[in-house]
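Discrete fold record:
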Amino acid sequence: MNIEDNLKEIIEVKFGNVKTFAEKIDLPYTTVRSILQRGVMNAKVENVIKIADGLNMKAEDLMSLDNTQSISTIYNQLDQKRQAKVYNFADRQLREQKYGVADAGKIVPLKRREPKTVDIYGRLSAGGGAYNDKSVIETVEVDSAPSKYDMAFVVSGDSMEPMFEDGEVVFVNETQDVFNGQIAAIEINDEAFIKKIYIEGKRMRMVSLNVDTDKDGKRLYPDFYADECDNLFVIGRVIM
């Protein structure tokens, strides 16, 4: 890999995605993306220094990135919170890889896929989502869909990144049998969510996968709960 590929890989390992990293170092996302596309050697010196500082590297080390630093080496240097973020990102990449990469890393050309039409029943979010109870709100085209599913929803917001991105279509099997640690589509007091859930006594705990924090170290998307006082309905299990 070239310098830019290695740089992007390190950014995604440490920060989940380029956009989050750009915000962290106070550079426009378009600037960082341009540097990764056009080359570090063509970037302004002050921007290279900002990127290096954001990665706790010296600028000269950034300019000479090679393959000597493996993913496992970087992973082992991360704290537990960031390791969880890396795991979720890697899991998503692995699922995507299955559609285009054979064994031994050999890339297999994808056959042309005809878009599939999918009925969307609502939006699942960290708040403000809506479930329309069998009423289709829109129809969209997707590249692929599971052979069997009951409903499809659009993810709204970034609380479930990096596994589920804003605007992504997710597919759901309608069932009340959702177990601890599974990703579910749920409705609480007329708002629809996509969350990892845990049953704790008489209440349900909803967990977001995005572990980003604010400047005070507090999670942007903390766990929250629903109990017998709430109007709780489990729509179904998200197909992974």
